[in-house]
Design goal:
This protein is mostly helical and about 170 residues long. It is about 55% helix and about 0% strand. The longest helix has 27 residues.
Length: about 170
């Protein structure tokens, strides 16, 4: 019998015979000892990614030695594929620099939660900065007030997703 059985996803205490967690609602094969929770492997990260388990993914990142770096890389990839929808035309070089910057800002944090917070804020602000760069490069006449609509919606979606993913 396990001394301190925990859910492998959220690390909360569960019964030694439990097959699902009453805290996070996830199913598991067997609870794990609290002492073994610190031995995260890439298999844990892959399993969480395949199942779409963001809280499990964050737990795996926290247990990994390079957790903030992994969050920075993940946010950089998200920025690479989503920022073009909220960025003005003609700032491609600046967009690519912003993707690297978002990853760096997140990876430079001390913890996974701090990396997620800093990276999400940088990701939300970047489209506005790219609009500002567009104004500097082309002048005020090429940018209208409506051009702030896409960055505003993007920032709202990023902050909503951050709030839903973070465990506060």
């Amino acid at each position: 019998m396990r001394e301190d059985p925990r859910c492998p996803h959220c690390t909360e205490k569960v019964s030694a015979t439990a097959r699902w967690c009453m805290h996070c609602g996830r199913d598991f094969d067997a609870p794990v000892d609290a002492g073994s929770l610190g031995s995260s492997t890439t298999a844990d990260i892959e399993t969480a990614m395949e199942s779409g388990d963001f809280s499990g993914l964050l737990v795996s990142f926290e247990e990994h030695d390079s957790g903030p770096l992994l969050v920075g890389i993940a946010l950089g990839v998200v920025a690479l594929f989503t920022l073009p929808f909220a960025s003005p035309a003609g700032v491609t070089l600046w967009y690519l620099l912003a993707v690297v910057g978002i990853g760096y800002v997140a990876a430079d944090a001390d913890s996974v939660d701090a990396a997620l917070d800093r990276g999400a804020k940088a990701l939300a602000l970047t489209p506005f900065l790219l609009v500002f760069v567009r104004i500097i490069l082309s002048g005020f006449m090429t940018v209208s007030v409506l051009s702030l609509l896409a960055p505003s919606v993007y920032a709202a979606l990023v902050l909503f997703a951050h709030r839903a993913i973070s465990r506060r």
